[in-house]
Amino acid sequence: MTAARSLTTVAELAAAGLLPEAKRADAAAVAERYAVAVTPALAALIDTDDPRDPIARQFIPDAAELVTLSEERADPIGDLAHSPVEGIVHRYPDRVLLKAVHVCPVYCRFCFRREMVGPEGLGTLSAKALDVAIAYIAERPEIWEVILTGGDPLVLSPRRLQAIMERLAAIDHVKIVRFHTRVPVVDPDRIDAALIEALKASGKTTYVALHANHPREFTVEARAAIARIVDVGIVMVSQTVLLKGVNDDAGVLAALMRAFVENRVKPYYLHHPDLAPGTALFRLSLAEGRALVESLRGRVSGLCQPAYILDIPGGHGKVRADSLAVEEADDGCFRLRDFRGQAHAYPPEDG
Ligand code: SF4
Questions:
Q1: Mean pLDDT split into 10-residue runs, the chain, 351 residues
Q2: Would residue 152 show up in a list of annotated catalytic residues for this protein?
């Protein structure tokens, strides 16, 4: 049974035995700068005897987060450059992000939106801002898909989710609604009948993209939560961030992708880590990432192969990091071609 409250302060993490004495001062400095939250379900999953525990590494503040490199950016994937109205990111013609909330049940230490999420972040869209965001979608017939992200949209109450879905259901040209969430693994008890019902909209197809990064996240409770969603006919796909010290190992990645497939979640995105501030501890090079992804081919079924994706810094969209659109140069840097055919250097030259 999951306890009610998440751990959100260094004192609470320490009291739960998740932060050794020697690391508390640095963790407090990190917590001043970036949000902290660990759900009871995840706290129970951390092996406190393992100093390199891959679950702890994702959620327990680390002194290395205090170091921001010159190439790191507050808005690494350029959301703000493509935000015509509050709460909307319109980067590609046929789809928009709808960021209704900037709160998450957990705060990942590598978060690409870490400057926007958390109690000090951009908050929840006001009723007026939501009206404007919905009107933006309704006025543009080219918008086929709405992606609810944030923050984690599944922290919203079923009543609020249902209200958003009813408004999207009334827009004929929107056919697909996709939720990006970590809730089924980090707070599985939250996935109850009322919440699942709220994810459905009349005449629309709902997809849920589940963010998980290590096979141990698939606890009995998490598997049951996923099954409750899939059993009502909602399609699930995966997203994973490739993270040094968490899943940068062919065996771990293979086990993770198999766990998704076994639970009826089709592997979709494997993200190269973004240039978010204070996240260098998680970043492997593009060459290392490509070698890892290559090692998955042949090792696991085609069902288990995700698309390895890099979000081009500056808001230029996604590129398949293992495709011909990414070329390695002689100096060890890469040249990327975005979906409009424009070339970019990676890492960016203007870092
Ligand atoms: S759940 Fe997503 S948005 Fe929230 S902290 Fe983690 S990576 Fe960031």
A1: 74 95 95 96 96 97 94 86 94 95 95 87 90 98 96 96 97 98 98 97 96 98 98 97 98 98 98 94 94 93 96 87 84 86 84 50
A2: no
> What is the spatial order of strands in the sheet that 326-328 belongs to?
326-328, 334-337, 343-346
Known active-site residue 73 = no
> Residues 23, 109, 167, 318: which is the catalytic one?
318
Give pTM, 2 decimals: 0.94
Question: Which residues are documented as binding site for [4Fe-4S] cluster?
Answer: 104, 108, 111
Q: Which atom of ligand 1 is nearest to the CA of 35?
A: 5
CATH number of 69-319: 3.20.20.70
Instruction: Judge whether 91 counts as a catalytic residue.
Output: yes
The domain locations on the chain are 69-319
Candidates 34, 111, 178, 248; catalytic one: 111
